[in-house]
Amino acid sequence: MSSLPEGWDMVVGLEVHTELKTATKLFCGCANNFGDEPNTNICPVCLGLPGSLPVLNEGAVEFAIRIGLALHCVVQPSSFHRKNYFYPDQPKDYQISQYDVPINGPGYLDLPDGSRVGIERAHLEEDTGKTTHVGGTGRIHGSDESLVDYNRSGVPLVEIVSGPDIRSAEQARGYAAELRSILIASGASDGRMEEGSMRVDANVSVRRGTEAPFGTRCEIKNLNSLRSVQRAVEYEALRQIAILDDGGTISQETRHWDEDAGKTQTMRSKEEAYDYRYFPEPDLVPVVPSEAFIRQIEAELPPMPAQRRRELIAHFGDAATDAQLDQANAAVELNLDPFIVGAIEKGITPALALARTANELAGLGDDAMSLPKDDYIALLKMEDAGELSATQSKKVLADLVAAGGGDPKAVAESKGFEQLDAGALDATLDEIIAANPDEWARYREGDDKLTGFFTGKVMAATQGQADGKAVNAALRQRRS
Amino acid sequence: MNAGEVSAVALANESLQQIDSQEGEIHAFVEIQREQVLRKAQAIDDGVAQGKNMGVLAGVPLALKDNLCQHGEVTSCASNILSGWRPPYDATVVSRIETAGVLIVGKTNMDEFAMGSSTENSAFGPTKNPHDTTKVPGGSSGGSAAAVAASMTPLSLGSDTGGSIRQPAAFCGVVGVKPTYGLVSRYGLVAFASSLDQVGPFAGSVADAAALLEVIAGHDPKDSTSLNAPAPALSSHLDDGVKGMRVGLCNELLEGCAPDMVAAIKRAAEVLSNAGAEIIEISIPELKLGLSAYYLIAPAEASSNLARYDGVRYGVRVDAEDVTAMNTATRTAGFGDEVKRRIMLGTYALSAGYYDAYYGQAQRVRTLIINAFTKAYSSVDLLLGATTPTTAFAIGDKVGDPMSMYQSDICTIPTNLAGHPALSVPFGVGDDKMPIGAQLLGPALSEQQLFQAASVLEHGANS
Which keywords does this Swiss-Prot/TrEMBL entry list (chain B) (predicted)? Predict the structure, then answer.
């Protein structure tokens, strides 16, 4: 829960920029590829050379509409404006964006916690190039030189603007996380925050009590992880409260989040704010998607996270524990739920499929998504059948993900993982019981806490080759 | 040409010789592509010798306005800020004329970034009117008009944002056409005011202008504002006449004009009438609002279009302490006074708090003018009026008085605001013996009728 001082309320709205996964840029045919050699995906149009003209990429329009539909937005006829400001990584010194008539009008997003955040708009615009400051201080002031890579110039973006409906830092994080899942699920974006393909700005203000008028807001830039979103919003609200408590006033400004320092800092004040001189982009014609085009995109829209969460939890019925519900949410957030559902449909024990996916697979980073589902299910099948212990299974999984897939049986064999036969397990247990007579006596008297003690001893003795379930069964058998 | 009766090399040499003898006095060009043109001419002659069809305009020399991008050739818009810049690509019109076999002999002088009406705003010095070198050739496409008027090239291309083809055509006594907005691709035309700019031909005759427009017109997927319409058939209809055509003699395109100008246009009306057209006197008061709307819309768009000349990527850079100071120093040194004036005007017109009163209001006036034209074209097929209020004025006459200079576009600007086509065809001379241009205007895509009427005026001009 929010740690705001008693009587204070925060009001937060998020602006999220997401790059679209189109093959080419928004207004030219250059490749939209992150990480290529600088200034290789460029042409007269995305360099803004004199005489060049933009031509709208229909694929970007389709992706923007997908996002709009996924956010329950009104998809409408729209047009482009020019947003004028000088910046070296912006080759035309104006950005082609949407202003008074965005492609997606009002909508909403429902969070897993049951709250609803309004969406004001989700519009199309072009990205800028990327500046790197070299030598000296390495920052814009005091560097020896600045290098600009225009590969990103003209990459399609959708900017999603929420209403001022968010009331806590946790909710801000939750909104950004759920939006990220939706963007990935829609197929329009890969949502990779660390690569900058999803970028979050937060507008934060505070007020005394939930009924007071909104306070003066500050816009926080440079939030490139979900954790930063939460930390920065929390920090900024507390900063503003401290100023107001001291009798000060908040000045409207743009602030920069310093992840290392854990602080927001002034970037530019309201007086330094640009006058963007928006006016209709004369080089482009209005975008008027037909109703049939919109309905077709809607029909092809994959299931969204909320629905997938419901479907996943349904596999557990009323028996799902709170921990399992959290695991299910986490799996859906990371778009790993198809692994769980796929495994359950192939007869894997639901609790095992959920635990392995939400705990282990989720921990293996972005590469986890590209593991072939069949390989994963084959691994779970071995574990479920007792052919691999949990420890062994986790090790095989890590190898499979690192290799981008493979036959789990072969990997297990190559690691020397063989099932411990019943005779060997019995012999090991005999030795351990003999070495720990007191513990064994207490266990026999019904102290179940010692199950873990003995299982651990067996695992250590067999270097993880024993199957935990088989050990449990053997222990119970000897006690009775 | 394709029959091999005349060689491309001979035509190129003829053009270059005429340039050699005239250019010193006229200064129509900012760059002459002597070696390139002879090389291309030879390639065309070789193709013809092998029996190949080298294009409908094979071997015809042409002068290109310096705001049209030509791969590898200097394209400076007659501005210091772009001096020496060589585009890595061809404008669509350049590709089309080269495919048609045209020989580009050089880039022509112009008012810097097409902002002006006399070609005196060139960073490389003014162009002179070949009919009287103390007079301006008009502008902004003054070099292209003068090149044709001085017989340096039979054809040239210009651009028309508020009259920049028609006004110099009138001053220099040649044919100049501003096509329907969207008929000719703007891809590779360095933008001045994107919603008004259009590329068009200059020629010594209506037929030559028609042939060139047929080559450059037609849909271009690289220009989103390009019309999805085929190029109009012009040459095959030049002799169709004007019988039954209703031509409005437009009061607002005559009042305020010099008496010799008014007399000439009335004679032009008679020529059309004698050829079977019905002449209807018509008044469209809204056209008077055009000038003030234009001088908000065009600078507003220009202020944005010219932002990219910031010294970061190409053209001139004046180094300074930081990026902002470098931008300012570059633009201060690189742009001429008229360009700076319009950038400031346009920036102001788009500023927060002023947008609605200036840019917004100008757009509403633009709609009024479009509606007024539409109403007029319900009762007439074409309009007739003067291209300019007077014949060519003297060099230096108006350069210190921007408002008076702006007035010289008063008859041409409304067409651009409406996106309609219009042309200027020579029709006699004024009291000063300088050429007079008769202007014909029509609704969108009425080029065929305009050329029919222009052809009639051309034949009747000396009768």
Answer: ATP-binding, Ligase, Nucleotide-binding, Protein biosynthesis
